[in-house]
Write a structure and sequence with these properties.
Length: about 240
């Protein structure tokens, strides 16, 4: 298996295209059958709207592509059945930096599609991220961080860092968190108690020499390794 590759991006332009996703049209019966199998194993899965992408190109610090409306069942089938190259998944991910320069990761709960996996607060792009026909990746990153953890995205770093892994671009932006791991873990716990959201099983401290780093999904490990090699951003400016 090839290792994820990491690149810096100054610009991400993902425009909504007209018409259906050809991959979905060609595979709908298989998608529906796989969804039945998946929900038998994980009854709490929800087949909500989603985007997959065609004509994706990363060149000279710019990522572009055409977004097609589809559903989560189609994404899941694509993800778990070979990841055909005519379709690309693009997702936004936070890269939350704690006061000591370590990172704030999460372990997903067993009932989710990524049960037990460790990565950074992230999520697929949604309809609400569309503005004038273009998907706003930064808005998605900030929304997912707040929805999943109750933590705030500060937008201090304007460059993106993208990890490409097995047909998917995971587009990250670093952001400073106010406080240490214990404080941010407490924010997560309060957020879960207030909202009832139980997608996250636990917070995980990601340090350059810690067990959390080893536990990360490959793309998230690639982003973390890049962060620790480029720590100029790491010192928190908040108290």
């Amino acid at each position: 298996m090839e290792k994820p590759t990491v690149s810096r991006l100054a610009e991400v332009v993902l425009r909504l295209g007209d018409g259906p996703l050809e991959f979905e049209r060609a595979n709908r019966p298989a998608i529906d059958a796989y969804w039945q199998e998946a929900t038998a194993r994980m009854p709490r899965l929800w087949n909500g709207p989603a985007f997959l992408f065609e004509d994706v190109l990363a060149k000279n610090g710019r990522l572009s592509g055409t977004a097609r409306r589809t559903d989560f069942a189609t994404f899941l089938y694509w993800r778990d059945n070979g990841r055909p190259g005519d379709v690309v998944h693009v997702t936004g991910t936070s890269l939350p930096v704690l006061a000591d320069g370590s990172l704030f990761g999460v372990r997903m709960a067993a009932h989710t599609a990524n049960g037990g996996e460790v990565y950074f607060p992230a999520g697929s792009l949604e309809e609400g991220d569309l503005a004038e026909g273009v998907l706003d990746v930064t808005a998605s990153i900030a929304r997912e961080l707040a929805e999943e953890t109750g933590l705030a995205f500060d937008g201090a770093e304007d460059m993106f860092t993208a990890a490409f892994d097995r047909g998917a671009y995971h587009i990250a932006r670093r952001n400073r968190l106010a406080g240490d791991f214990g404080r941010c873990r407490d924010v997560l716990a309060r957020h879960q108690a207030e909202t009832g959201d139980d997608e996250i099983e636990a917070a995980v401290a990601i340090r350059a020499d810690g067990a959390g780093l080893v536990a990360l999904k490959p793309y998230a490990r690639a982003l973390a390794d890049w962060h620790f090699e480029n720590e100029a951003f790491s010192c928190s400016e908040k108290t």
